[in-house]
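Anyone up for a design puzzle?
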């Protein structure tokens, strides 16, 4: 199955680090956009770059390692009692880990200060004029 990125890109998304504005953590936004086949994601958090840093780290991990590994959970009271839990959302994906890594390499993460409209105006300049 040839999984290609579609040209859609969500611009001006905000992570949960934009207090009272953003919703999801940066890594979740990146993974969801990739799984939906988006070509990129524009993050524009307010007053911080913490969400962007976490999103970039998640994208770098996806480019190198593919899907996040199974989670190790402690089970029981004795030391060494652990169980590995696979994320059920990843069980029925229509592409392989290698295809996901290739999609992540082509994925573009753009910071809010670098967003540019089709007529080449910068988003930040446009917002500055409105104030």
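Challenge accepted. My sequence:
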């Amino acid at each position: 199955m040839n999984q290609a990125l579609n040209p859609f890109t969500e611009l001006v998304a905000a992570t949960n680090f934009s207090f009272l504005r953003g919703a999801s953590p940066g890594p979740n936004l990146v993974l969801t956009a990739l799984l939906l086949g988006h070509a990129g994601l524009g993050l524009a958090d307010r007053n911080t770059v913490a969400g962007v840093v976490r999103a970039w780290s998640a994208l770098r991990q996806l480019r190198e390692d593919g899907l996040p590994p199974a989670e190790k959970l402690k089970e029981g009271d004795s030391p060494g009692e652990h169980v590995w839990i696979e994320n059920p959302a990843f069980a029925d994906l229509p592409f392989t880990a290698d295809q996901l890594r290739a999609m992540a390499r082509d994925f573009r993460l753009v910071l809010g200060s670098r967003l540019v409209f089709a007529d080449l105006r910068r988003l930040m300049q446009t917002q500055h004029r409105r104030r």
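A detail worth pointing out: The first helix runs from residue 26 to 35.
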